Amino acid sequence: MTQSPAMPALTQQMQDCIAACMDCHSICEETMSSCMQKGGQQQMQIMRALMDCSETTRMCADMMMRRSPMHTDMCALCAKACDMCAEACTAMPDDQQMMRCAEACRRCAETCRAMAGAGRV
């Protein structure tokens, strides 16, 4: 009788990246809610970046948790979405929520870039 191979354990680097992705996803969702309450053209433009970042970070975390062979490619894309979102949020430097979101996006982008590089030889 053959046993199916066990799923490899998540590395600390993957766990850190998953946590950063989920934190970023949560704050992007909170920031979208804040933008909707405030309204205005500037918030609507930022919403696109927030939506892209929110969805990408969630998907990235999901792919790492299930050990998808494409997770390093997704991490590279996620880093790009996070960078774009951080830049969009910094357009409103007086808004504390936007600044918290930009910081979470920068942290996530950094961990995702590290994960994307870890899968390359």
Polypeptide structure, described:
Helix content is 78%, strand content 0%. Helix 1 (12-38) packs antiparallel against helix 2 and helix 3 runs antiparallel to helix 4 (96-118). The protein is mostly helical and 121 residues long. The chain contains 4 helices and no strands. The chain has a single domain (12-32, 42-118), classed as Substrate Binding Domain Of Dnak, Chain:A, Domain 2 (Up-down Bundle).
Q: Mind sketching the topology for me?
A:
Layout: H1 12-38, H2 41-65, H3 71-89, H4 96-118
Short description:
It contains 4 helices and no strands. With 121 residues, it is an all-alpha fold. It has a single domain, classed as Substrate Binding Domain Of Dnak, Chain:A, Domain 2.
Write a concise keyword list for the protein shown above:
121 residues, mainly alpha, Substrate Binding Domain Of Dnak, Chain:A, Domain 2, 4 helices, 0% strand, Four-helix bundle copper-binding protein
Find the CATH topology.
Substrate Binding Domain Of Dnak, Chain:A, Domain 2
Give the beta-strand count.
0
Our measurement of the CA-to-CA distance between the termini, rounded to an integer number of angstroms, reads 35 Å
Question: How would you state the average pLDDT, rounded?
Answer: 90
Regions with little confidence, pLDDT below 50 for 5+ residues: none
The largest β sheet comes out as: none
Helix fraction, binned, reads over 70%
Strand percentage lies at under 5%
What is the radius of gyration?
Answer: 16 Å
Order of helices and strands: HHHH
The number of distinct structural domains comes to: 1
Secondary structural class:
mainly alpha
